[in-house]
Amino acid sequence: MVVSFIGALKLFKVLGSSFLLVGGVLYLTAGQSIIDIPRMLTSNLSLLTLLAMLPWMNSVVKSGRFDCYLNELMNVNVADLGKLYTRSSITTLTLAAFLNLSAVSISQDVLKRNLGSLSKSIRNSFINRTTLRGYSLALVWSPLEMLVAVSIFTTGANYVALLPWLLFIAVITFLVDSLSCHLIFKKYSYDNNQVNKSHDVNMNKLMKKVLHLIVSLILFLALVILFGNLLNLDFILTVTMLIFPFAFIWALLMRRGRSFWSIGWKTWKMKMNKMQNFVVLFITLSFFATTLNGTTFLKVIQQPVLFFADFPLMIFFLIQLLFIFLSLFGIHPIATIGILSGIIAPLLQLFNPISLAIVLITSSIATLTVGTYGLLVTLTALNTEQSPYRITFDNLLFAFIFSGIGSLVAYLLL
């Protein structure tokens, strides 16, 4: 952290210093042992390790020219940004179901290149919305998403019973978002001279490549599940360990080994040399979040929720607001679930477990688009060279609508 602090951007130096200062005060007031400090600093290291390995998955996708086919898929028969928005959301959603965070980087790279002629404010606003929202809608129903797994574990709900409702919420939210943003962006014409027109695109070849990508990524997820269960490893660690060998073997089977090494080595060096911001952010954030969990401040948060226990819809909305509010200050949604765990048990005796699971899942996933210090927002801020607060502002209304739809569906299922 000390070494990375020197090369970090000013914004991350300020954030890191703030987290250390507040975390230090909380540490002193809570009377925690000095022996616990290393554990407090290292709870987010698995995320940093995953970030260090992601460039290799991006590289095999680029060496197989899948990003080029993604570019074609986004732009066929697109005349304005309104139509491009829906196409980009679908593409990001589809890829995110398999590539996870890598899909966001790939989609953002393609959009940055194709929207280079537009003003920076319009381009960034478009990217902030379509990529982050598409990504979140892919995770809300995924059994491999950590937030989904934690919510199901906490409530004891059955995933098979949850899945139809989660898909329903994802579809409704997608339609609402696509319609509203289509109306916002349709006034901006889109003319990319580098994109082939529809009659020049070989649709058979394009669909074969898309199928190839889907099959390969389904295989990757199957291996993640297999090795995770056999070795009893958590999801993040399993993905981190499998990324490089899977990407390397995939490149060899495509006969793209040389381009994979060429692209991968350059990309990995470039990304690793920009890890200072992430190192400072996640280590200091780990210290802050861990010390916060050891204070009586948690009881202050729990009291308003318990006060409205006789009003289900009100308590669902309070949980939703709590997730979003805490995410703005760097509290990870899993930590928020931990905060709420003390009141979940009595609520399970009153409410349908499926309803509570839906509220926890939609509220936690919605924070991914607005968590100012979260991984997704921070990565987007670095990719697009803008303030993370701008990204939060662009997606705040969506987060309320997304989790609000989840709360309404949960209420109807009581």
| Measured distance between first and last alpha carbons | 47 Å
Number of strands: 0
Structural class: mainly alpha
Given the structure, what is the number of helices?
Answer: 20
Order of helices and strands: HHHHHHHHHHHHHHHHHHHH
What does the average pLDDT come to?
83
What would you report as the Rg, rounded to the nearest angstrom?
22 Å
Query: How does the overall form come out from the CA principal axes?
Result: globular
Measured as a percent range, the helix fraction is over 70%
Summarize the main sheet.
Answer: none
User: Uncertain regions: pLDDT < 50 for 5+ in a row?
Assistant: none
Portion in strands:
under 5%
Give your account of this protein's structure:
The chain is an all-alpha fold and 414 residues long. It is built from 20 helices and no strands. Helix 4 crosses helix 7 and helix 8 runs antiparallel to helix 19. The N and C termini lie far apart (47 Å).
Topology (SSEs and partners):
Blueprint: H1 2-7, H2 10-30, H3 37-42, H4 45-63, H5 66-75, H6 81-99, H7 101-114, H8 120-139, H9 146-155, H10 159-185, H11 203-231, H12 235-253, H13 257-272, H14 276-293, H15 297-307, H16 312-327, H17 333-348, H18 353-366, H19 375-384, H20 388-412
Transmembrane segments: 6-28, 40-57, 90-111, 132-153, 165-185, 206-229, 235-254, 275-294, 314-344, 356-376, 396-413
Keywords: Membrane, Transmembrane, Transmembrane helix
